Amino acid sequence: MAVNPTGADMKAFLAVDPDQPIVMLNLLRFADGGAARYDAYLAHFRTYAEKVGAAVVYYGHGGDPIVAEHGQGWDAVLLVSYPSRRAFSDMVRDPGYQEGTHLRTEALAEAVLQPTAPAG
């Protein structure tokens, strides 16, 4: 399963409204030993997120689900606020950011990366 967006994913993402502010929902399932590796990724990530005006809203480890099918629980949830879809795209294209994405890839067995916008 892919844990990083492809070029086609990013093109479709930007086609919606590149200037729309978003909060990116990250649902994370760690590989063996991945939690520590993800912490290293987050330290790297924060540097580049700040450059584009993004901020971590929440990062927490998941507990046992109360309502879910078997296997639907996640190890962690990360919410990041971006001033625009374009800001997210700019960050992931940054060569310095890309140098650390191996940490994320190595940390995760599975992930969902879903942009959200305020309802209403």
TrEMBL record:
InterPro entries: DUF1330 (IPR010753). Residues 36-108 form the DUF1330 domain. It holds the Pfam family DUF1330. This is DUF1330 domain-containing protein.
